[in-house]
C-alpha cells in the first residue's frame, strides 16, 4: 500500500522546513488535541477543513465515491483498487494500493503548495 502524508505549510512552516525538514515531519504527526499545541501547529500548517469540503464536492456525484467522518473513499470498479483520503486537522493521509492516487492529483491541480512529508 502506498501512503502519502500531505501538509500545506504557512510561511513560517516553509522557513522551518528549509532549515530542518525532520522537525516539520515530526510536528505534523503530533496529535493536536491539546489547545495549546493546536495553536502552535496553526503557526506552521494551514488547516485542512476546506479541503475536506472541496474533496467532497468534487467527488460527490460519482457512484464509486463515499464519505464518512472525514474519510473519503473511492473504489475503481475496473481495477478493483481502493483509494482513501483521511482528513486530519493539519494533514491529509492518502492511501492507495496503486502508485497513482487520484486524491493527490486533484489536490495538486487546485493547490500546488502542498508538501508530501513521506511516502
What do you see in this structure?
The protein is an alpha+beta fold. The protein has one domain: TATA-Binding Protein (2-Layer Sandwich). The protein has helices at residues 11-19, 21-28, 35-44, 49-59, 102-110, and strands at 2-8, 65-68, 71-75, 82-87, 92-96, 114-118. It has a six-stranded antiparallel β-sheet with strand order 2-3-4-5-1-6, with helices on both faces. Strand 2 and strand 3 form a beta hairpin. The termini are close together.
Topology:
Layout: E1 2-8, H1 11-19, H2 21-28, H3 35-44, H4 49-59, E2 65-68, E3 71-75, E4 82-87, E5 92-96, H5 102-110, E6 114-118
Antiparallel strand pairs: 1-5, 1-6, 2-3, 3-4, 4-5
> Helix tally?
5
* Class by alpha and beta content: alpha+beta
The CATH class label is Alpha Beta
Instruction: Name the overall outline.
Output: globular
Element-level helix/strand string? EHHHHEEEEHE
| Overall radius of gyration | 15 Å
Question: What is the residue-averaged pLDDT?
Answer: 84
Helix content: 25-40%
Q: Per CATH, what is the topology?
A: TATA-Binding Protein
Largest sheet data: 6 strands, antiparallel
- Estimated share of beta-strand residues: 25-35%
Number of separate strands: 6
CATH homology-level superfamily: Sporulation inhibitor of replication protein SirA
Amino acid at each position: 500500500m502506498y501512503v502519502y502524508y500531505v501538509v500545506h505549510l504557512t510561511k513560517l512552516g516553509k522557513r522551518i522546513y528549509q532549515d530542518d525538514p525532520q522537525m516539520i515531519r515530526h510536528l505534523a504527526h503530533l496529535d493536536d488535541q491539546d489547545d495549546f499545541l493546536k495553536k502552535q501547529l496553526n503557526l506552521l500548517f494551514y488547516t485542512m477543513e476546506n479541503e475536506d469540503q472541496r474533496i467532497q464536492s468534487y467527488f460527490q456525484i460519482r457512484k464509486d465515491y463515499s464519505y464518512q467522518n472525514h474519510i473519503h473513499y473511492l473504489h475503481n470498479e475496473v481495477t478493483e483498487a481502493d483509494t482513501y483520503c483521511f482528513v486530519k486537522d493539519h494533514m491529509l493521509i492518502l492511501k492507495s494500493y496503486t502508485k497513482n492516487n487520484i486524491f493527490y492529483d486533484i489536490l495538486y491541480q487546485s493547490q500546488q503548495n502542498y508538501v508530501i512529508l513521506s511516502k
